[in-house]
């Protein structure tokens, strides 16, 4: 990317979609990204903005003045304007404050910024077509025409009553097919799912997913239409929440992005590593507590990693299923007894298979006269460990959910560490009784 | 649910959306679910079918004859018909074969069944409006009217050329606003993303997500329009793939659902548990290999769980980020050097913090004269373990991806087990040199 190649680069870039251009910008060194950002036409620049990760976007906007930023934002829908401004406010609130009043839709955007980032209000845009339910098809069509320039995606026309309260919607298909003098009230769908602005975005995603919606009206507590959420924004939410769940499961707090700084990444990973260190130290104390047993039969140390791996793994498997089921609504909080019954069945089968496998490994390895007693001890202890740690994994998320704590916290390191401690204690207790 | 309550139950159920009714059916005992399924009107029964998990659906359809099933399916879109029939064929292929020819759209459904379950062809439906690009707005509107009964969700009209090849689309908004004699070719959008029928569904989801599409045309290799994929089906794919990723990360193979049988669940979890057992046995052999060191300094056993927890945890964190980044396209395979540089930075910081924390714990616990040497040994060994296991976690997924293996396999138990072995070896080696 140097000055001489400007024409060629612009030609290449002209046909790219915003999302693709954003990915290229994200992979360029910052200086080159700035140059490219300078070169491309302002309409394309505007479209790329919402696609960038916030850190990089902040770096690129750094060079611009507040009227320049406002001019870019004016080309976006209000929800994207609010997102970009909200991110900007975090790093450079003076600039965000300077940009806001210069926007065409300043009032709408200011209103959108009052909603929490992860709520329905934070997802919705104020670009929609709404007409009185007493209007005719022809009048509604005229309103669509009037707004057609500013609205890219129109699938429905919302109907409101004289007080401005949301009533229902008419699809463009019906508008196209109905005689032009039909009043909308006659053809409107009024059995419509709506949400309030403070609903959590995960719940919004679940509703749009469950009922296969492509747009969802957002209303105030007294029924006024505030905005609409489109499915493309919710798809991003679903992806983000899924990534967050996976990060939780491996013990990453916060939200690690590829562009996050080394310090942010380190901080997000350290919380659970430090807690894990504490938990593992307790596991270590359990082992040291059975030091005498280890001195008499050093071979028992062989089983420490096995017990830890199996307890941790079986527990995290059953906890992941419980967390997923609670999140999707397939498991209800009241399903505790049924869950325990099923997980017990699974644990008994897997415990039996793994115990027999371990016993066979011990026999195959051969430990002199003690071999059969050692095989029996190891197998029996592993059986108990698998059953208990599976049940702990399955029940803790449901218990947490019942007392109002996010069950995802129970997944990952927490279950692994507590099952390590539980598993080692059981193993050495069984070994002391049976083997020594 | 008994006969006397029939009227009341039907009243309650009449206003429910299919997805909600499906959840209730899924939570009822099978006998009650059958009764309820019998009672509700056939249109509602049909809508509930695609929302049910396949095992339960199979049980409920068991009672019905092939004409009854065909009559239910005829009320669904072809993609749902194919999904239900495909599942049915797995448990009762004679019944599926009997149903298929009785369907109104038998030819379409038979064609859809030829595509792989997890491909664009498996997701698409054949319900769409397509007209010649030479047609006028009025003619296209007439075609929408003709198909309006069978097509619920129409957002666009596809245009094709005289050879039947896909050209582009006209949104209903444009159709509504354009003069009725305008030829479609004049107002059609022709810079359109299309996919071929054999494209993997994950790639389909990524494309629709990246370009914010609500419908995606599927074409054959020679450009003929075959069907269209709507975003609601892709939302389900995104959720499923995310759940699958999380299950992979905790070592569950296959796809565990809440309704899966105990044996299916047990099998899906056993694969990695058995491999983990083998890996942990090797870890155990490492410990036994350093038995002499443990006899001389039994306190070293204290650090076994710590090394295992930290090596496993740091590795799974960095591998999860690499797998996520590869899946979303934020990390490219060629980013190896940059990734290593960043992860090294993170590992050095976290390693330092954790090593100092461990050294302080050792000092605080007090181990007589040896305390400071033990603190130094443990801290230094932990530092090396954290750095190496973080780098292993970060690089293995990229390496696997380069040679064409699904990087998600590297996450979870595989990284944990190999880092356990690596970590324990390093720890005892360092301890032998520094401490003994």
Structure description:
The structure is a homodimer of 436-residue chains. Chain A is mostly helical and 436 residues long. The first copy, chain A, folds into 3 domains: 3-114, MgtE N-terminal fold; 130-238, CBS-domain (Roll); 262-434, SLC41 divalent cation transporters, integral membrane domain (Tetracycline Repressor, domain 2). Helices cover 64% and strands 6% of the residues of chain A. Chain A contains 21 helices and 6 strands. The first copy, chain A, has helices at 6-14, 18-27, 30-39, 42-48, 54-61, 66-73, 78-91, 93-99, 106-113, 120-123, 137-147, 172-177, 184-187, 201-210, 231-249, 262-289, 291-296, 303-328, 336-365, 371-402, 413-434; strands at 130-132, 156-160, 166-171, 195-196, 215-219, 225-230. A 3-stranded mixed sheet of chain A has the order 1-2-3. A 3-stranded mixed sheet of chain A has the order 4-5-6. In chain A, helix 14 (201-210) packs across helix 15 and helix 18 runs parallel beside helix 20. The longest helix of chain A is centred in the last third of the chain and has 32 residues, at 371-402. Chain A is elongated. The model of chain A has no long low-confidence stretch (mean pLDDT 89). At the A-B interface, helix 2, helix 11, helix 12, helix 14 and helix 15 of A face helix 2, helix 11, helix 12, helix 14 and helix 15 of B.
